[in-house]
Amino acid sequence: MSETGHGADPRTARSIRPPRATAPAPAAAVTPPTRRGVLAAGAGAGAAALLGATGAGAAAAPAGADPAAAVPTPPDLAPYASYWFPGSLPGGAPDPGIVWRSLVDWSPESDPDLAHNTATVPLAPRFTPVPAHPGARAGQARISSLVSFAPTARNPSQGSPTADYYALTHWAYLDELVFWGGSAGEGIVLAPNAPVVDAAHRNGVPVLGNVFLPPVAYGGDLRWTRDLVQRDALGRFPVAEKLVQVARTYGFDGWFVNAETDGGDSALATRMREFLRALRTAGAPHGLRITWYDAMNSTGRVGWQGALNSLNQEFFEDRAGRVADSVFVDFRWTPQSLAASGALAGRLGRSRYELWAAVDTESNGWDSGVRWDAIIPRDRDHVVGYGFYRPEWTRNHLTDRSPGAFHRADDRFWTGESLDPARPAPGALWRAPATAVADRSTVTALPFACAFNTGHGERWYEGGEVTSEAPWNHLGLQDRLPGRRWAVDTAGERPAVTLDFARAWRGGSSLLVAGRLTAPAVVGLHGTRIPLPATTVLELVHASEAGAVGVEVGVATREPSAPGGPVPYTWRKAETVGGAGWRTSRVRISSPPGTTAYGLAVRITPGGNAPVSWRLGALSLHDTTTRRRPASPGALTVTASAQADGRASLRLAWQRSPGPVRHYEVSRVLPDGTRRFLGGTCGAALHLPAVERAAGERAAVFEVRAVDELYALSGPSATTLAWT
Length: 724
Description:
Blueprint: H1 45-48, H2 67-70, E1 83-84, H3 114-117, E2 143-147, E3 176-179, E4 189-190, H4 194-202, E5 207-213, H5 222-228, H6 238-250, E6 254-259, H7 266-283, E7 289-293, E8 317-318, E9 321-322, E10 326-329, H8 335-347, E11 355-360, E12 385-389, H9 393-396, H10 403-415, E13 448-450, E14 456-457, E15 460-462, E16 465-468, E17 472-473, E18 488-490, E19 496-500, E20 506-507, E21 510-515, E22 521-531, E23 536-546, E24 549-556, E25 569-577, E26 583-589, E27 596-606, E28 612-623, E29 634-644, E30 647-655, E31 663-669, E32 675-681, E33 685-692, E34 699-707, E35 717-722
Helix pairs in contact: 6-7
């Protein structure tokens, strides 16, 4: 990919490189590194700002004081996302905050952070609803996305105490997410952290780790390529076996392989192809996949083609069959080269949509100049799929880094300037995914609930009450959000529909509908495929903060007849609400046997002429005959701790609850009986970076509870940490 910071054109530039770390941004915000950073400079510094105090009573330093002196920090027990070199390590010593490791030496038994880095949510099956936009197509172009969530080194395993985070929510348009990163100064094999994988899997999106063999100009060394593809005495590929073991152990879905270190020969290229086949052969029975980047070609040299052609097709398909599952085509593509690539894929017996045409959005986001008709023309079949490089621009370019500002920008990127996938802005140059690619959903069974939690927030709410004032992020706690944001049908003025962080029922955010309603407004929510028993109940938790409104819930038991067609909802009155208090409306969904819910919506009718502000805190659909609280987790223990001047860093672990569990939540019980939320995870271990001793407290009390799909809490399992 391009070196745009060095004056190179993104269509003719020389390399696709993961980011290097930058210095921390002001306040607790961290700006992720970009390709324009100095190689590996201060790679640990960016993430360090993410690991500030959390929990009860984290103290602020006086103005002008040294924060480290004002707030003593206990020794660091934080777990981080894993990264390695394939075999041999660089010469010299790593920079502070970086740990050099060899993948061939890794084992689950020797991994001290394994419990914190293991994803537990299985990859959910998906279906394709009839699209809201008439131009959105199923079965044609798909989308991959290469995202750098944080620096390679010191990337927190389980979220961090800041809301300034790329909380990706538009999973409905993605077919693959690559956990982008790696550098010659840190490590070149990068495993995704568990929150990203858990969130993606809940929405049916596979996540790939990254294998990056960097250009020589950026520290690359051909010995790392040779380490990667080395055979043992029995002819096996030990690193391929390790990569499969890592993915299976950590719970992600395969690898993106990017070989950009020049200087090889045809024998090395042959060995690379054999390595890829061994990697895929070992991984495919476990559902693992490989994406190959268009860099090394059959001569062993690096020569970006911008196409699938005779020089690189053997890394995709050779005479023996499939080598990689997909190819990420370099930015040098032209309309002619993509058309030829798709045709070649067909002659090889493969789908043209297994090719991702690179679309660079790192620097300009929706203002990027993209020749869309070369990829997703509107007047004929799509040519190939496409892959976004660094779509986290939607966060990184902002001056207002609040979560609300981020989601407004991210919705525009994925939905378009109109912020309505059914009604795109006329003449828009940015061809938003919602206007070309059919969305997908995983909502197929009861029980189902959504509290519109995006996986980050400025505080944490339970039952509408604040139980932690600390900002946070953890994508594993994210809900399955509506895939279409926001399809609104009204004969009057369109209200603003946003994910809002000023108030929530549970988690960090809620759905806000605000504006002057001159006619009833229908807000489409989830596409579903839920069989409805006769005892099905739909519940809304909602509040009206301005203006009285009548609220109805819509359940579609048929699909639209065509893309872009009206959804045939059947409406049931919920309640007319006024005043700011949360209230719960319960509607019985009485349907004949064999009925399926194909979509959910709300309809809001104004009670007057004043502007309205209506908030939806939670939506749930369940069978009244099967509701039970989850079982309590067992044996909560402190597995490691360190204290300094009344503050503690510790690791907790517990036994998983029997039966289905959505996630676990850890709280602290203060001496006055107040319960304060500290964090959550889908796994069975959690790191708490900085817990402050309460006045007169001899031991800190911690509790963990299991949370089910309807957000019902189990009884607690508790433990203590004696202060020293």
